[in-house]
Write a structure and sequence with these properties.
Elements: E1 4-7, H1 17-32, E2 36-39, H2 53-64, E3 70-71, H3 87-99, E4 103-106, H4 110-122, H5 145-153, E5 159-162, E6 169-174, E7 178-183, E8 191-193, H6 201-211, E9 216-220, H7 227-237, E10 243-247, E11 250-251, H8 261-267, E12 276-277, E13 284-285, H9 295-303, H10 318-324, E14 335-336, H11 339-352, H12 355-368, H13 375-385, H14 395-399, H15 411-417, H16 422-434, H17 441-454, H18 459-471, H19 479-486, H20 488-501
Parallel strand pairs: 1-2, 2-3, 9-10, 11-14
Antiparallel strand pairs: 4-5, 5-8, 6-7, 12-13
Helix pairs in contact: 1-10, 9-11, 12-13, 15-18, 16-20, 17-19, 18-20
This protein binds one RNA strand through helix 4, strand 7, helix 6, strand 14 and helix 11.
RNA sequence: GGUCCCAUCGUCUAGUGGUUAGGACGCUGGCCUCUCACGCCGGAAACCGGGGUUCAAGUCCCCGUGGGACUACCA
């Protein structure tokens, strides 16, 4: 049977990078096995709904290259794929559970429950609505059928809770962790159906997964504690449960705990794929896309955070990831996000990118600096400097001297290299270069070296000063490549300007 | 507090009873070189602790310890 997997976010804000990884693993698993990838929107919490979140999620996956076979945005024969549009479906299933005696009505108000919790807390106990306490509460287990009937028909608010078995060992078979066992008496009678007429996640996800014929539930480890409830729900319905795989969490880079929204901008890296502006507060959260990351790099980095193919290969395309992926190789423990490694991945992908494509990204930056230049020349420059950049937006810093004269000269270099006779030497080299007709960079190099040798000068000292006057700093590709690019007349001017302005 | 999960270099990890405990990021020494970067060669750096099981334990078991998640009419 071909697997059917789903990624099921709730539209409460931008998609967290941990969620992206969960979706990625689902996708890799589906594609590897010729299965189906589904996007389902879990919007059963009407309070937390955030406009724009759904569109954001879809756009993020488009950017990342994670494609869905079925879902809110693409349709499919198991729709609708948005839980708020499936509202009518859930009621009949929860009724079925009540009929079977696996669920019951509960009329306790939020205040009463809160009071119980407070009481328990003051006695250092824990209040839980479960096997042990449900007989002291106000529900269809303690009330007579007539009272229940009367309350419901009078419109009293109620919820429907799952009735756990009293004395059973419940087993969850997890593909990553193996067998997880818990005693049913320890589980609380979770609300399945809220008083607003909406199901909770627990009910909706089981009903939908069943109806959508989901074969594998691959989700974050934060769901592990409620997995026993889910297997109990499948049992109660008499349905075959899907296979479960609970993914290790993505942790903060420093210290401990789950990577959260706040960590990113505090520590200087994005926690979201795309930039997000909160519609209520206008608060901005940075995104990988806007920070200059390539989607391939983000995917590659995320794939390796909690999984690896067991080889030493690190750079992998989506297709390679798909071929190599297996759930067995997912690690059990949480992975700390590593910003340095993320940058390294981006650097790798930037080097792999065709130069003309990278040059194309440079064009708008150049026009921001009022530089008018042919695309061919930009490609030449990018070719020369690309190996030292980690992000496309660093291109200007590493190549501005190709387009504009240096506006200052590195003090450190002046201090270390500029001597009393430097101005004279540079003038002589300048005229030597000007005598070359036509100009040839190899000959220029040889002539310059010859000059240095015959005058018994220090190569490093002269060359760095020459570079300083042309580039403004001790950086960049081969100096004669730069001279060749700029042309001898521009270079001569730069040498003159440097001689005039640099004093020791 | 309760329940569950987890534990190899600083970080991501390989390792499925016998290894000089491997790789990558980062750090670092050198080479290349006019400089920066790339590249190449090298280095420092880890099995949480204690008990078992076994001829042999990073690897299996137990107990600690540490970390994490969950503990809502949120997902």
């Amino acid at each position: 049977m071909k697997p059917r997997v789903r990624f099921a976010p709730s539209p409460t804000g931008p998609l967290h990078i941990g969620g992206v990884r969960t979706a990625l693993y689902n996708y890799l698993f589906a594609k590897k096995n010729g299965g189906t990838m589904i996007l389902r929107i879990e919007d059963t919490d009407q309070q937390r709904f955030v406009p724009g979140a759904e569109a954001y999620i879809i756009e993020a996956f488009q950017w990342l290259g994670i494609e869905f076979d079925e879902g809110v945005h693409v349709g499919g024969k198991f729709g609708p794929y948005k839980q708020s549009e499936r509202k009518h479906i859930y009621k009949q299933y929860v009724d079925l559970l009540i009929e079977k005696g696996n669920a019951y009505f509960a009329f306790d108000t939020a205040e009463e429950l809160e009071k119980k919790r407070k009481e328990a807390e003051s006695e250092k106990r824990n209040f839980q609505y479960d096997v042990h306490t449900r007989h002291q509460m106000c529900n269809s287990l303690t009330l007579s059928p007539e009272e229940v009937e009367q309350k419901i028909s009078s419109g009293a608010p109620y919820v429907i809770r799952f009735k756990h078995q009293e004395d059973q060992e419940i087993e969850v078979n997890d593909l990553i962790r193996g067998k997880v066992t818990i005693h049913s008496g320890l589980l609380d009678d979770k609300v399945l159906f809220k008083s607003d007429g909406m199901p909770t996640y627990h009910l909706a996800n089981i009903v939908d997964d069943h109806l959508m014929e989901i074969t594998h539930v691959i989700r974050g480890e934060e769901w592990l504690p409620s997995a026993p409830l889910h297997v109990e729900l499948y049992r109660a319905f008499g349905w075959q449960a899907p296979q479960f795989a609970h993914l290790p969490l993505l942790l903060k880079p420093e210290g401990n705990g789950k990577l959260s929204k706040r960590d990113g901008d505090r520590l200087g890296f994005p926690v979201f794929p795309l930039r997000w502006e909160d519609p209520q507060t206008s608060e901005i959260s940075s995104g990988y896309r806007e920070s200059g990351y390539l989607p391939e790099a983000v995917v590659n980095m995320l794939a390796l955070l909690g999984w690896n193919p067991g080889t030493t290969q690190e750079i992998m395309t989506m297709n390679e990831l798909i071929q190599l992926f297996s759930i067995e190789k997912i690690s059990k423990s949480g992975a700390k996000f590593d910003l340095e490694k993320a940058k390294w991945f981006n650097h790798q992908y930037l080097q792999l990118m065709p130069t003309d494509e990278l040059a194309k990204q440079f064009l708008p930056i150049l026009s921001d600096h009022n530089i008018q230049i042919s695309t061919e020349k930009v490609i030449k420059v990018v070719e020369m400097v690309k190996d030292r950049i980690y992000f496309a937006n660093e291109l200007w810093d590493h190549s501005s001297y190709f387009f504009t004269r240096p506006d200052h000269y590195d003090e450190q270099v002046i201090k270390k290299r500029w001597k009393e006779d430097t101005a004279v030497r540079l003038s002589e080299i300048k005229s030597l270069l000007n005598d070359l007709k036509p100009f040839d960079k190899t000959i220029a190099h040889d002539k310059t070296m010859e000059y240095i040798q015959t005058h018994e000068l220090n190569t490093g000292q002269i060359m760095n000063c020459l570079r300083l006057s042309i580039v403004g700093a001790a950086k960049g590709p081969d100096l004669f490549d730069i001279i060749d690019f700029l042309g001898i007349s521009e270079v001569s001017k730069r040498i003159d300007i440097a001689i005039q302005n640099i004093h020791i």
